[in-house]
Structure formats: C-alpha cells, structure tokens
C-alpha cells in the first residue's frame, strides 16, 4: 500500500507539471522555515552553503526541471517535486537515484553540463519512486555509450531487492552495511546506514566526502515542515535518532529527495517541530478520552474507536501548532497525518 501511495504521488506530480499554465501564480510561495537566503537557480554558479533555490514551487510546477550547481563537480536536480544529485568526474558521471518517470529530463540535465558517460548509478534505498527510471535510462544510454553504468547499492538494499523479487535492475556492486565506502575516481563516498531506520529498513545517508554533500532521500524535506507521514516513513519510532545521526556528519549541502537544498538549519527546524508536535499530541492524548466521538449505541464493532480517537488528537495537535507553523509549506495537509503517527508512537511506547 505504501508503494502505491508513492506511485500515485509521483504520477500526480508529473500530471501537475504537465497541466499547469505558464502564467504566474497570484499566491506567494510559502515562507522559509529557516529564514533562508534565496538565489535564482543556476547550473553554472555554485550555491553557497545555506542558500536555497528561489521560487522552487513554481519552478516545479511550470518548468521541465531545475538544475542547480552545488560545487565545482556536484549538481542538484529537481522536477515534479523529486530531487537527486550527480557528480561529474574526470572520466564519467556518478548519478544517484534515477527518479521514477524522469529518465529523459535527468539525462538532458546531465548532458547540459557534460558529455561524459554515466559510469555509475547509486541506489539510496529500495523504494521504486526513487529508482524506477533506472531501466529506461539504461536503455537510452545503450545508444550513446559502449559500457553500461555500474549499479551500486548497500548490502541491505541488495538483499531487500532480492527478498522482494524487485523488478528493477539489480546492483552490480554491493557496499557493506552499515558503514561501507567506495571510491568513484577521486571522490570518496561513505555509506552511513541507520542502525534502526524510520523511513524503511535499508534507509541510509550517502556522504560525498570531498564535496561535502549528503544524500539521504526521504529523511526530511528541506525548507518545509515534515511531509505526510514524515516523508512517507514506514515508522516514526527511530526518526529523531536518524536525524541526529545524519546531522552529526560533516557536510555543507543536503539532498532529501524532495524540498529545497538543505542545510544543518533544516535539521534543527525539523527536530524542533517534532519536539513541539510531540508535546501537542501528548497534551491532546491527556485531554481526549478513549471512545471520544463514538456513540456506543450506533456501532457493532470496536474498531472505529482507535482511529476516531487518533483523529481527534491529531486535530487538536494541529490546531495547537498552527499559530507557530501554520503559514509554512504544506502544514495543513501534512500535519494531521504526522500527528496521528506521533500518537501511535506515544501510545505504543511508554
């Protein structure tokens, strides 16, 4: 069911991109959660640490893709609200996560800055919305380069793909879990697998050491409050620990697979938001008695009681956070689901 949700979200994003007109929106973009300094997207001028791409929502809605240079060799790509990175070496290109339905624009963006072959692809984790363009991309590359890219993944991802009989192209190089590393030309890449992961069991952060770039899709959406179910996490339980682990690494630029280019300030914002949400949900749980909103004379199964209880708790917690966070990107649509997830966590672990 979770992967179906992701597929629907990805398809919706592409549909929105195709359907939007070229006229400018009358609604201003949401304010920055971290007081960011915004600059116009540029594939030639490197982003300074802490800067973010301006007008990103409208760019996602109305342009084929956004390409932003991060360093001399690393580039950030986003289209339809999905983002990834690639690194241009001396001989070839290292691409992370060929995003679903985006093989052609990703290749176009790479070709806009280099004609070097794509010699390696990295899978960050086994969720199809971040990997499903691999097959189409490999087919496209057959006409332009003599050798197929190496496909690199962690041991946890490779084993999960095997267990679930994944239809996606399998890794040709497997990195030891949880703290393996590999070298791409002169670039050191470190795997930092989460010992107990929130998003999915093979979730990890990939550090481009020399470039000071961290790639961890679905860990957080930079410059936004947490997305629905904390970026589609399969569980909330270990998220704070995962955020702290990634934040403690040595980097300047962060790609979370969605949202803007991230910084350590985005991690601080998310940790504060989660702390405030936990307090609001805990307070609501103390105020709302179990069975609230259910007429016992009108039911013949108890199963309605828990979701009704969570729903009321989420409404109250969302109301409590609205004065502080209500103007931020997606607050109204994402926070109730996050509050329900938090309520389940607090109810289960005491």
TrEMBL record:
Coiled coil: none annotated. The keyword Signal applies. The keyword Signal applies. Residues 1-26 form the signal peptide. InterPro entries: Metallo-B-lactamas, NDM-1-like, RibonucZ/Hydroxyglut_hydro. Keywords: Signal. Residues 82-258 form the Metallo-beta-lactamase domain. PROSITE patterns: PROKAR_LIPOPROTEIN. Pfam families: Lactamase_B. SUPFAM superfamilies: Metallo-hydrolase/oxidoreductase (SSF56281). This is MBL fold metallo-hydrolase. The lineage of its organism: Bacteria, Pseudomonadati, Pseudomonadota, Gammaproteobacteria, Vibrionales.
């Amino acid at each position: 069911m979770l992967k179906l949700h992701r597929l629907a979200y990805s398809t919706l994003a592409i549909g929105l991109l195709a359907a939007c007109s070229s006229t400018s929106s009358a609604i201003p973009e949401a304010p920055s959660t971290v007081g960011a300094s915004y600059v116009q997207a540029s594939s030639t001028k490197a982003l300074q640490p802490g800067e973010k791409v301006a007008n990103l929502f409208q760019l996602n809605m109305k342009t084929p893709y956004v390409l932003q240079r991060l360093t001399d060799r690393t580039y950030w790509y986003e289209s339809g609200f999905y983002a990834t990175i690639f690194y241009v070496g001396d001989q070839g290109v290292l691409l992370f996560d060929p995003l679903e339905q985006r093989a052609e624009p990703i290749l176009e963006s790479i070709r806009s800055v280099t004609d070097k072959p794509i010699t390696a692809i990295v899978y960050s984790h086994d969720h199809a919305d971040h990997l499903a363009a691999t097959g189409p991309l490999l087919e496209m590359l057959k006409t332009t380069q003599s050798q197929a890219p190496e496909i690199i993944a962690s041991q946890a991802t490779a084993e999960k793909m095997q267990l679930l009989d994944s239809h996606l192209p399998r890794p040709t190089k497997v990195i030891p879990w949880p703290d393996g590393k590999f070298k791409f030309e002169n670039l050191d890449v470190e795997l930092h697998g989460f010992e107990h992961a929130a998003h999915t069991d093979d979730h990890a952060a990939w550090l481009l050491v020399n470039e000071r770039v961290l790639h961890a899709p679905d860990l957080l959406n930079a410059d936004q409050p947490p997305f629905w179910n904390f970026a589609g996490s399969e569980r909330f339980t270990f998220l704070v620990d995962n955020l702290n682990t990634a934040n403690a690494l040595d980097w300047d630029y962060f790609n979370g697979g969605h949202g803007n280019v991230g910084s350590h300030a985005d991690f601080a914002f998310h940790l504060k938001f989660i702390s405030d949400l936990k307090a609001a949900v805990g307070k609501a749980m103390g105020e709302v008695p179990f069975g609230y909103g259910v007429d016992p004379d009108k039911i013949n199964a108890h199963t309605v009681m828990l979701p009704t209880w969570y729903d009321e708790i989420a409404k109250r917690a969302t109301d409590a956070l609205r004065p502080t966070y209500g103007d931020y990107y997606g607050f109204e649509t994402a926070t109730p689901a996050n509050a329900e997830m938090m309520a389940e966590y607090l109810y289960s672990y005491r």
